[in-house]
Amino acid sequence: MKNEQAKQIVYVNTFTDGILDPEKAMLGPVKDGGYIIANTAPGCWGPMITPSLQGGHEVTQPVYVEGAEVGDAVAIQISSIQVTSMVTASGNDRTVEGHFISDPFVDAKCPECGTVNPDTIIADVGSEAVRCSNCGTAVTPFQFTNGYTIAFDDDRTIGVTLPKEAAEKAGKEGRKNMCTPEHSVQNPIVSVAPHDIVGMVARVRPFLGQIGTTPARAMPDSHNAGDFGQFLLDAPHDYGITKEQLEERTDGHMDINRVREGAVLICPVKTKGGGIYLGDMHAMQGNGEIAGHTADVSGIATLKVDLLKGIKLDGPILLPVEEDLPYNAKPLSADEKSKALKVAKAHGFEEIEETAPVSFIGTGADLNEATDNGLQRAASVLGMSVPEVMNRATVTGAVDIGRNPGVVTVTFLAPLSTLEDAGLSEIAIKHYHL
Asked: What pLDDT, on the 0 to 100 scale, is given for residue 2?
């Protein structure tokens, strides 16, 4: 990669096999201040019914950032997100006994011939559409407990769930209707044609469920987080790790609906070049992704990348779009500052804090552990005690569920002086026009 000339724009339309591996070749490099334009493949359900993929998702091949060294950070501005799928399907899942060895995301197997991570074919539509190429047996390690097929309007602003006949018609041309990228190998989830909910209407507001930097060790892409990463602890397959080794993750799998167009995500560099990847675009989702899955879609995303030298982070920091901030975490207006200064002077002092919103990502085995992780990360970066972060998040922010069972955001108004000491004030001031 050292001999490659850095590019202002790196175009991405190739994907991993489900494993994020710092030893594998990266695209790029992209220049500091340059752009990544990616055609992303759907996450979750498509890869989950494609046993040859070993990660549960199918994210883009990582991009090397020129000059990025371990201990730096990269700021990723999401310039645009465009949904290209016309139809998709999703729903709550259950695992199928006998269709995997230890982890249905990683070591799926054919229950008949025993082939591990078998290649598959699509046989018509329905719950048994995906079959082992070797013996023809229905082979998916996951099935729906309650599922739906959803179609979008031409402008991708609204979606409506389909009845059985319409879902099956869409499933017969799955790759076309999902606009699956050419180099993607996943089976289109619409081939299963779930139709338990009919006529439900949902607004489209897309975001990236997967975006971040490559972890310091090879791990399945969907497991690059503190909650899903629990499946790797002492696992018998090739990617089993210890609790200590899980700290090498970068929490790229967040499923936080505020990671959308206009937001900035600041990510740790834990392997040389950073290795920015993305995928698992969702058409819409409320806080928490409580069903475990939402409407995964193909799409086109444009990212602006800025290298932040010497800013060592354990996990990501999000600067949400202002309208997505909790009420108490929104930037103070000039009028509010004026009123606050009057109160201060009435009580004998002359200065109030200058602040900016910041949102720390925390992940863990459950929501309590994720909250503790987010609080500790905020305290570490800003040089505060955890109790101080607790107070600030309580009074000037909020703790919100990113994903159940174990991803949260700890959001609050942070003093600009602490952000400056952390090397983050300039980017926060620019983002919120302070």
From this structure: 57
